[in-house]
Amino acid sequence: MLAVPRRKARTAARLAWTAAQRQRLRAWPWTERSMARRLASRQPASSVVDGPLVSIVVVGRAGRTIPTDLRATLERTTYRPIEILISDAPAGAERAAVMEAAIAGAAGELVCLLDPTAAPLRPDWLGHLVETVLGGAVAAGPLVVRARGRRPVPATQREPDLTLLSAGIDFARTSGVALPRHLDVGGDPVEAAGRVVPVPAVALTCLLARREALLGAGILAGYAYDGVETGPAAAPHLDADLCLRLRSNGGGVLLDGRATVAVRTELGPEPPTPLPAPSRSIPPPDPERATFLDRWGPRLAREVLLDVIAGRHVWSQQPLTVVVCGGPDDALPNGAPSGLDWRIVRVGAPGELVELGAPDFEAADVVIVADDQTEILDTPTGLVRVAWLADPARPPTELPEYDLLVAAASDPARAVAAETGMPLVGTDLRSADGAHVLHHALVEWVEATRFAIRIGASNWPNARTWGDYHFGRMLQRAFQLSGHPTRVRLLRDWGSDAAARDDATIHVFGKVPAANRSGQVNVLWQISHPDLASRELYDDYDLAFVASGPFAERMAALAGIDVAPLHQATDPDRFYPDPTGPHHGLLYVANHRADRPVIEWLLPTEHDLAVYGRGWDEAGLDPRHHRGVHIPNVGLHRYYGAADIVLNDTWADMRAAGFISNRIYDALASGAFVLSDPVTGIDREFDGAVPTFSDEHALRAAVEHYLAAPEERAALAARGRRIVLAEHTFTQRAGTLIAALQPHLDRHPQRITELPS
């Protein structure tokens, strides 16, 4: 075997690797030199060479070396006067804080934030940016390209040098959520050179703005801020955040294609290769994306969706994508309706059951469902869901999970809309103007203030057995009848990207606290578990309500936010007198638990005692008393209205703290006579219409007395119903919540400043 010296072996290997890279480079459609010539030919020289002082602020990253030739590169800039402020972020220091301090200490009227990895390609770059900002833009940025390398092309590089890393930033829509992205990554910068165009945001690799505007934005904290150093993989959340804050104070952001900076990605050590993410159904959290959505979710979602519905495409380049499931073939055919910039996608043939988990919905904005068997619950909650009543007798399942109801105007369609509280879009999608009517309805829906109701159920099969689920649905209906689109969000959806779109959240508190977002108004409504209340819990919300007067007073003295009493309620359209259910002398609807002595106190009994709920068989209840494990909520009023006595009991801590069970409000609205344990404040709440018992003797005596006095029962039931209808409906509760929310909503603008036309 021929021996090769170690140095020669390394040299041969390096040359072979470099040759392989050059071979790959030759496959690209342009060379660096030709690209530079073409780019220069499209970028006219700037005539602006003097004006206000510009402070060029360069803040390095901890552990990274600022290039020694950067100052010399900047000093060749033809615009004057300038000052150059270069500083390193000390190890462990937040780079944003160092940058804000540098901006505050700058002397210039204008400040240019420049990443230390970036260098202008032409000396007249700054003159162009100054001209653009002085012309009225709140901020301007150049094209960002990949710099010519000083070492062999890394194996991970997928685009040639001098290709685009950013031609501004717009917002991609995925599953109904708008997220920032660099435009034209890997593209030809010559296509964008020489043009000054409005964009939602520009890369912070290089941004020029007035110093006072930057200081007024006050926004840099909360992000790692690595610019676009990682190229196409960069997540431009900070870039978009800063530009949105600047825009919010008035003015547009412009991409100035007459200037170009190149990012030298080879400076410093190579970034470590990320480890592959573990296989899981839920992606690992992205802290920067979460921070961005926390701050901008509602306003940005509204701005972007209105932009694409109108077909302007300033905020997002993609057309509005509408997925149609089922329905007649002649309705909204593939393509775009006349005069509307829509992309229509049909999924499945008419009558075909569609699985709504397909990739089609990841790129969708609106989904229209006509098939009454199509399951909607597992589609992204960021989509605008439209139920199409082609046949009002066969509406899609889970109607409360839809946002709009479309149907030719008719009494059956209006009845369905009233039942859910959804707005009815009166049109036939097969008609010539059907799409345009839907277009206007979408605009109205997006412009409205949206609410979310958080409940603690973790999945849909279990949710329907929770009292909080039905509580949430009835409150949802009341909000929607008042003109506020509302979604019930399960525990698994509280922290989703789509949930960031809601303007306000109402947390029907069970046991789990929520992670609230600063861009939303967050309301706590504690209807149970007083043992879990604390100042820390309450102070994470903007305001709080408590389903108990005495407990609300206690928490108001303890918490640092406004706290007010707001008792539970009922929906008289769901609970009304209808004595057609099975007749029982004594009716008890509740699951078994250890601290529930009511049934034990009554047994044995010769009366017709009917118990409905889970766990009673295992507890040994006589089967003649256990009549079922569940009564559907939609039919519960029939059971209440047909019973002689409806029994109620309460958790011991809730009873002492004055939390009155929702069961009492529902039963009274159904015309029932209710016998309850002595909850603090119950006599005042219902003016004595609900008699109480405190022990076994009192319970048995009350049962015997009221079973023998039907006229007295009827009089008390009628009084209780009048009080509930007058003071304790979800319509009234929704009105109270909306009035309390409004001052907080007024401090959260609904829109971001419009881009210049």
Polypeptide structure, described:
This protein is of the alpha/beta class and 757 residues long. 31% of the residues lie in helices and 19% in strands. The strands form five sheets. Strands 1, 2, 3, 4, 5, 6, 9, 10 and 11 form a nine-stranded mixed beta sheet that branches. The protein has a six-stranded parallel beta sheet with strand order 13-12-14-15-16-17, with helices on both faces. A six-stranded parallel beta sheet has the order 19-18-20-21-22-23, with helices on both faces. Strand 24, helix 15 and strand 25 form a beta-alpha-beta unit. It is elongated, with a radius of gyration of 32 Å. The N terminus is likely disordered.
Question: Which tags fit this structure?
Answer:
757 residues, alpha/beta, 31% helix, elongated
The 3D shape can be described as: elongated
Strand content bin: 15-25%
Helix content: 25-40%
**Low-confidence segments:** 1-8, 20-30, 151-159, 227-233, 266-283
Assembly form of the protein: single chain
Rg, alpha carbons: 32 Å
The tally of beta strands, per DSSP, is: 28
Output mean pLDDT.
85
DSSP summary: helix tally: 22
Ends distance: 74 Å
Alpha-beta classification:
alpha/beta
The largest sheet is: 9 strands, mixed
